[in-house]
Design brief:
about 400 residues; alpha/beta; 4-stranded antiparallel beta sheet; binds pyridoxal-5'-phosphate
């Protein structure tokens, strides 16, 4: 246990953890059942192309959400692209900049301009009150993102979409297993898109899905994700390859069986972080409303440097030194990433809350591979850092002035 700032690894101490603790280390579920399913797939030599496992997975997901259709896909990004195309979005679509860049890319990939809207700092979700002023004659839709799995203001977005005759799609990549006003996320708008990427609490290695109650839209999406094929040799539509493999679906079915357990672990980790970190001036943990269903997948801290006297980036750097690979999210904001920053260099002027939040937010490791003792150690380091914010900041500044090359690089 480190008691002194000289013990921190960035100042020469030994890292707290020998192995790196990743945010989003995959949850695995029951290995025996998973391997039995893999064997079955191999025995039957049916590896992809709408096999039994994919069909079963889609049925189970639709049932869980209470939706009519689930179309499983190879990943969330392709699912977004196909949903956007199937909804015939064109021109401009309003999205938050505070999201993973895939939300914006899925539009730009199809020559649609993402118009970045600011967020409500209290919820980190798109602020419906600001949408009105971003609507132009070219606007065809809105994509809401349920950041951290906390449903965005779906009622207000639906009202605007109805009044302005816009399509409403949700990027629900974070929202599987969460609810909004008594209904599962997945039930809202024209359609919702999930990601089942390995870093999500519920994964299919790579994977995603579009969920909708709209029969015609579902049929179109089914065609689009399979090259437009309707039966053998009969292509009736433009399409691509968005299919989920049988192996991924088997992982998904196994994950469904363990899902309640994953959520229980996430919940218990969240409660422990809350009790160990609450009360530090300038540090707030993103809270989940327990009257909703929630996956508790993200442990998110907001750092107010004016009170902690140490920046979010310095805290992340210190944690990386201890092999705790905390992540900045969604830094630096889509509008500051290419190609958007070149095409729309001034969009930040309309995004003060996003600009502020991307400098304050960081996420911490959780999931089934993070133990109670790990969380205690992580929180103990954080407390040491927060109790000595000014002194550590001074030392980091001196070190940087002396030409030290600062660390962190961020990949997936
Ligand atoms: C908000 C959001 N949208 C879209 C995606 C893209 O999903 P995928 O990685 O499955 O393509 C992610 C995933 O990481 C995400 O977090």
């Amino acid at each position: 246990m480190k008691k002194n700032i000289d013990d921190l690894a960035i100042f020469g101490g030994t890292p707290t953890f020998r192995e790196k603790l990743h945010v989003g280390r995959p949850n695995l579920g029951d290995r025996e059942r998973l391997l039995a399913r893999f064997n079955d797939i191999l025995d039957r030599r049916w590896l992809t192309n709408n096999g039994e496992y994919v069909q079963d997975f889609e049925k189970k997901i639709a049932e869980k959400i209470g939706a009519k259709h689930c179309i499983a896909m190879c990943n969330g990004t392709v699912a977004l692209e196909i949903a956007i195309r199937a909804l015939e979005l064109t021109g401009e679509v309003i999205i938050p900049s505070f999201t993973f860049v895939a939300t914006a890319h899925a539009l730009w990939w199809q020559q649609i301009r993402p118009v970045f809207c600011d967020i409500d700092p209290a919820t980190h979700n798109i602020d419906p009150d600001l949408i009105q002023q971003m609507i132009t004659p070219n606007t065809t839709g809105i994509i809401g993102v349920h950041v951290w799995g906390r449903g965005c203001d779906i009622d207000a977005l639906a009202r605007i979409a109805r009044q302005k005759n816009l399509k409403l799609l949700f990027d629900a990549a974070h929202g599987f297993g969460c609810s909004y006003k008594g209904q599962m996320i997945g039930k809202f708008g024209n359609a919702e898109v999930f990601s089942f990427h390995a870093t999500k609490f519920f994964n299919t290695f790579e994977g995603g899905a579009v969920v909708t109650d709209d029969d015609a839209l579902a049929s179109k999406i089914r065609l689009m994700k399979n090259f437009g094929f309707e039966g053998y040799d009969n292509v009736i539509y433009i399409g691509t390859n968005g299919k989920m493999s049988e192996i991924s679906a088997a992982m998904g079915i196994t994950s469904i069986e363990s899902m309640d357990g994953f959520i229980a672990i996430n919940y218990s980790n969240y409660k422990q972080y809350l009790s160990e970190l609450e009360g530090f001036p300038g540090v707030s943990l993103v809270h989940y409303d327990e009257s909703h269903m929630c996956n508790y997948h993200f442990i998110v801290l907001e750092i107010d440097e004016a009170m902690t006297h140490i920046s979010r980036d310095s805290i992340v750097e210190i944690l990386h030194g201890e092999n705790i690979l905390a992540r900045r999210y969604f830094y630096p904001g889509c509008h500051r990433m290419e190609p958007y920053r070149t095409y729309f260099p001034h969009s930040g002027l309309l995004l003060p809350n996003t600009e502020r939040l991307v400098k304050r937010v960081m996420s911490l490791p959780t999931g089934e591979s993070i133990g109670k003792g790990d969380i205690s150690n992580i929180c103990q380091i954080l407390r040491l850092v927060l109790e000595n914010g000014s002194e550590i900041s001074r030392r980091i500044s001196r070190r940087n002035a002396a030409g030290y090359d600062q660390v962190p690089s961020y990949g997936e």
